[in-house]
Amino acid sequence: MNKKLAGRWGEAQTAAWLRDRGWEILGANYRTRFGEVDLIASDGKFIAFVEVKLRKSAAFASAAEAVDRRKQARIRTCAELYLSVNDCSLQPRFDVAELYGEGPGTPCTIRYIEDAF
Questions:
Q1: Residue 21, C-beta contacts closer than 8 angstroms, at least 6 positions apart
Q2: Is the pLDDT score of 102 beyond 90?
Q3: I want to staple 55 with a disulfide (CB 3.0 to 4.6 A). Which of 19, 35, 63, 94 is the partner?
Q4: CATH code of residue 26
Q5: How many structural domains compose the chain?
Q6: Cα dihedral sign, 31-37-41-47
Q7: Which residues pair with 39 in a beta bridge?
Q8: Which residue in 77, 76, 74, 110 sits closest to 93, CA to CA?
Q9: Would you state the pLDDT for residue 55?
Q10: pTM
Q11: pLDDT at 58
Q12: Domain membership of residue 100 as a residue range
């Protein structure tokens, strides 16, 4: 399967999961010249910058382990840029959504890690 298509599917699954729990999706695939944030969501208390990682299984390593220091720095920079142009009084945080499954048309498991870094 195409990695880009699988990634978009994972982001859509995570967005639906967040909406089911009362979150509002403020943005998806927010791009800057420094990188991209997969989802930006709010629950009224926090604004979460969410990195979505899709894997078939955690046999090799957890999906969250792919969010290394360099990736975290890029996400932080993107978040700073987002907050500089979007008025927001909510507490920012950085979350990671791990999805395990085969992709579109198959069930998946979501492990959501709040305040991951």
A1: 43
A2: no
A3: 63
A4: 3.40.1350.10
A5: 1
A6: negative
A7: 28, 50
A8: 76
A9: 87
A10: 0.91
A11: 64
A12: 3-113
